[in-house]
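Predict the 3D structure for this chain.
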Amino acid sequence: MRTPLVVANWKMFKTVAQAVAYVREFTGLVSGMDDVEIVVAPPFTAVHATAEAARGSRIAIAGQDLYWEAEGAFTGEVSAAMLREAGARFVVIGHSERRTKFGETNDQVNRKVKAATAAGLTPIVCIGETLNERESCETLRVLDRQIKTGLDGLTANQVAALAVAYEPVWAIGTGRNATSAQAQEAHAHIRSRLSEWFGAEAADACRILYGGSVKPANTKELVGQADVDGALVGGASLDPKAFAEIVAGSRPGRI
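Done. Predicted structure below.
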């Protein structure tokens, strides 16, 4: 039985003071929800402060990105070791906004995943198709390329420990979301490929999250699908009450 994983991706929102206030309020809202793993991904500037605010709670902190080199002349970049020292335990890699707005490639995603794994961070690896790719019936082929290249060279144990987030690009920040049937189809395909390439045990252990306009109202139906193990939440996670409702809707036995 995979423990549901719910991740708040704040993107470029919240100052340090706002982030700390959020965590303090949110911690009380999810008290007792020990059957869901909760991760918050604040901006880099707030990673340390949110980690300190969450100390002693079950809330883990993630970076929103990282660079694959350990150090060097890479102005503006942040390494895995820097994230770990600041208090992060997870890191989001390959988000569609990184791919579409900043030109991130599957090869770069692979280098970042390997750097995160080597440093002891748990990668949350994002994959997903654009609207044009879905309408051209390319969804599954796109997912195959992203999985094959993005996870190339990892061991079965490493794949078992990470999370994959399926986020159809056409559903991110648009108010549209994949139907539960569409999400299950994509997630089942992803798990079948993980099984084929890394073994059934790794595929069964790896958590596959859905991301794309997740809200309290659609959480139970989405996470209730057999191969949907949680959610990567954007806009709705900026409100602690709404995010707490999403966590509650992801709990086993409440779906």
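The longest strand covers residues 122-127.
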